[in-house]
Amino acid sequence: MKNNILNEIKRGIEDNRITQAIVNAALDEFDKMSPLLLAIKLKVHDIARLIITEVKADPDARDKNENTALHIAAYNEDLHGILLLMLNKGNINKKN
Predict the structure, then answer these.
(1) Average pLDDT, whole number, for the chain?
(2) Is residue 96 part of a domain?
(3) Long-range contacts of 56-63 (CB under 8 A, 24+ apart)
(4) What mean pLDDT comes out for the span 84-90?
(5) 24 assigned to some structural domain
(6) Which of 11, 14, 44, 86 is deepest in the core (most CB within 10 A)?
(7) Cα separation of 7 and 23, whole Å?
(8) pLDDT above 90 (res 3)
(9) Among positive and negative, which fits the CA dihedral 5, 95, 67, 76?
(10) Which domain range does residue 26 map to?
């Protein structure tokens, strides 16, 4: 499954859907956030969907500040991310 996600990231880079700047930001943030939280923060919805559906990541996992992916999507006014998380059982009642 990890290889599937890495291959999707590589395809995204090759298709210019994921720019070098996003990759650099991901590397800077990688040790601070889970892959799902990072994908939502960067608005890489295809990757976030893969992480939820293939890796079975918990959509309510929290970062070091107690934010869930849904908190991050809402803060960034990311309607696509909000819908993705809600459709995959992200809890709208979690408080940070």
Answers:
(1) 81
(2) no
(3) 59/85, 59/88, 59/89, 59/90, 59/91, 60/90, 60/91, 60/94, 61/34, 61/36, 61/37, 62/96, 63/32, 63/33, 63/34, 63/37
(4) 93
(5) yes
(6) 44
(7) 14
(8) no
(9) positive
(10) 2-87
Is pTM beyond 0.70? Reply is no
Q: How far apart, in whole angstroms, are the C-alpha atoms of residue 87 and residue 49? A: 10
For the chain, the farthest-separated pair of C-alpha atoms sits apart, in whole angstroms, at 38
Residue 87 pLDDT? 95
Contact 73/82 with Cβ under 8 angstroms? Answer: yes
For position 45, which CATH number holds?
1.25.40.20
To which residue do tokens 């956030």 refer?
33
- Report pLDDT for 94: 83
Tokens 């918990």 locate to: 58
**What's the token pair of residue 31?**
């040790």
Count of structural domains within the chain = 1
Q: How far is CA 37 from CA 14, 15, 51, 56, 89, in A?
A: 23, 23, 10, 13, 15
